[in-house]
Amino acid sequence: MATPDIIERVELIRNKINELILRFLEIDFDGELEWHREDASQNNVAIGVDSSYTSRIFKFAYLYLVRGVAIPYSSSTDLRSCLVSDSDGDVHFLAVPGVDAEKGSRSPSPPIRELKKISSHKSKDIEIELGYKAYLCVNDFVDEEDIIILMDRSGRGFLPYRFKKEDESSLQEFYRPLKESWRRRIIIIKELSRENNLIFISKTQTRTYYNEKLMPYISHEDKKINILVPDVILIDEYFRRKGVFKEGVREPGFSDPVVYNMREKILEDEDIKHVTIFYAVFRRGGGMYQNQISLVGDYFNKTDLLREIFRKIMFWNPGGHPEPLREAHHMAKISCKDFQKLLYIYGINLETGREVLEL
Questions:
Q1: DSSP string for 283-321
Q2: Which residues contact 223 (CB under 8 A, 6 or more apart)?
């Protein structure tokens, strides 16, 4: 039930949002960006890859479970035999240190913040591995140039190694397998990127890759004050003013790309220097998706290549979102409640301390 104080706060929030919208309309641009209209499609074989992970902190243990799936899609060949899935799960003690059976000594468990990063790390490993397995299977049936691998998240997140202080840590043996799995992940990404058929598609975008290209600003006392605006909001407003998105309705097509330069070497490898990013709409009035490609090569000026990639994705977008990714998402999804039910079924009864609130 909404109490009077909550209603009052909501009204304040509404007024603040309206104020921000009015200020947003004062934005000007110093820069140029092209929108390439396109509604054609090109037949191909697509592999949709996604994963889901869930975790729970119990009174003395941290448990996580990762589930991933890669689903091949084809209009002419039955490739369901190439569907692959996998899962990974583990338990780490919090109050009670784990025991190394071989050495007979107790080894400390990493901090909670590291354990949460582990499940994310594992999910990326699983997605890349499953995508690669499905690709090798499908490649036995069709030409590799006709295959695209669609990953349901930002490509930049797959490249860095997140455990920065492992060399200074007493947990080096714990981190070593993670470093090895990350190295294999990068090698597979390079392999799948050779034919420009590895495409990372993100549904939500809060980055500001295009700010340097469009340079949005607000005039104040005869000065230009540069501001940061999330990409989708920025691009929507820019093309609305140019008359491309008439009446605010997005048109099918794709934007000029920007190249994000990696700040660190990946495996001391000069090949992976940057990520090429562009935005696309696959249905009139549909959502805008961030696409990242070419983790090995730089295709900044090759609009024809982006058009070909767009058409391949477009083929699997009758509703505005890639169907292979939609099905992969539903097959991989696992909730925390489902996880707990599985634990109870197998006789694992751990307390979180919240049971009294869930009666």
A1: STT--EEEEEE-SSS--TT-HHHHHHHHHHHHTT-TTSS
A2: none
Return the sign of the alpha-carbon dihedral for residues 344, 346, 349, 350.
negative
Prediction pTM value: 0.86
Beta bridge partners of 275: 260
Written as one letter, the residue type at 232 is: V
C-alpha dihedral, 256 to 151 to 66 to 273, nearest 10°: -60
Instruction: Give 30: exposed, middle or buried? Use CB within 10 Å, 0-12, 13-18, 19+.
Output: exposed
* Type and span of the H or E element at 343: helix 336-345
Tokens of 62: 């941290």
pLDDT tens per residue, range 164-173 = 765 556 667 7
Residue 309 CA: distances (Å) to CA of 159, 200, 329 = 22, 12, 22
Would you tell me how many other CB atoms lie within 10 Å of the CB of residue 106? 12
Lookup: tokens for 149: 């691998």
279 sits in which H/E element = strand 274-281
Closest CA to 65 of 331, 327, 342: 342
pLDDT digit string, tens, across residues 260-297? 876 666 655 556 667 888 999 999 998 899 998 865 55
CA-to-CA separations, 234 to 7, 9, 203, 209, in angstroms, rounded: 31, 28, 16, 10
